[in-house]
Amino acid sequence: MTSGLSDTAVSAALDAIYEAAAAPALWPTALQGIADCLGDVGAVMLWERSDGAFGVIASPRLAEAQRDYIENGWNRRDIRAIRAVERALWLRSDAVTDLDAVEPHEMDSHPMYTEFLARHGLRWACALGLQPSPDIVVAISIQRAAGKPPFSAREAELATQLGRHAERALRLSIRLLNAELIAEGLGASLARLDVGVLALDARGRVVFRNSATDRLLGGGVKLVDDCLRFGASANGRRHAAVLADALKTDLPMAGPIRPIIVDEREARPLVIHALPVGGEASPEGVFTNARLICCCSGPAPGSPPTPPSFATCSGSRSARPAWPPSSGQASRPRMPLRGSGSPRRRSAPASSGSSPKPACRASRN
């Protein structure tokens, strides 16, 4: 790929680019790696969102020049950037250099070259326009020291290839950050509504839980060694079997999962809705640990025991639980239903004499 340029530097740059995808704070290091591939001083990343927000990330060796660029208004006098916008050079799929935007005689007289760049020992630039998402445009500008020749066509081609990797990494970074923010925001929002949320992996271990979960668990179900543990009663064993059955992502589902009602004879029973994330054969199943989302809810004091509406809102077809009659209660509470509401069954159900499986089970080979 490098045609004589440092393969070691290119490999290091690619490693740094994709490390920055998962940890955006590493982008200054990745930008420096891109510049190192061409033996240059550093690189700058400029980004702008469709809502007008913008920002700049500079590699370490360009930090001082970048401060000067912003604080002293050189961003409004940058002839290279102005010409690139006027001539729509950012829309090109390959790299853009000074010679594409500025005439040689302008370089000898324009303050951008004679003052700003000269003060920081810089001269040439090679820039790439990227669009990692429809709402975000990005430009990466590699800065070359004075005294070196302009970027050659071969160097511009390498910069273009590195830019394509940077665009893929930015696209991945945006997706990862959006998913993380949505997950954290949803967990916090449900916690404010006193709804606990747990994510279980294939072995039944908790890989995520929000703050409301700790307030709701207790009594008939507890968190022990990162697993949900139900009591030793017949109901507890039945609840454990339902949860273990729900974690069998390799078996077909024949119906919705029946809600688990813990301490159902108490004034405030805990209701757990189990929502499968996806089978192991799906692309999501290969790259995610979570196999089951459990939503836990207990009615407010004085209100009738009603399962949470989260499952209904999310499209889950939860079955009507078997509520026991209680003395003094004229009729059992009405439940929100979707679909026929038949209990979940497997193609190979356990016999009546078999022992229920625990919520945490050994990993399958």
How would you characterize the overall build of this protein?
By secondary structure, this protein is an alpha+beta fold. The protein has 2 domains: 171 residues, Beta-Lactamase (2-Layer Sandwich), CATH 3.30.450; 121 residues, Beta-Lactamase, CATH 3.30.450. Helix content is 35%, strand content 19%. The protein has 12 helices and 12 strands. The chain has a 5-stranded antiparallel beta sheet with strand order 2-1-5-4-3, with helices on both faces. Strand 8 and strand 9 form a beta hairpin. It is elongated and about 90 Å long. It starts with 6 loop residues before the first helix and ends in a 52-residue tail after the last helix. 31% of the residues are buried. The C terminus is likely disordered.
Q: Which residues sit in consecutive blocks of at least 5 with pLDDT less than 50?
A: 300-359, 361-365
Shape descriptor reads: elongated
In the CATH scheme, the class of the largest domain would be: Alpha Beta
CATH architecture of the largest domain: 2-Layer Sandwich
- String of helices and strands: HHEEHHEHHHEEHEEHEEHEEHEH
Report the average pLDDT across residues. Answer: 77
Largest sheet: 5 strands, antiparallel
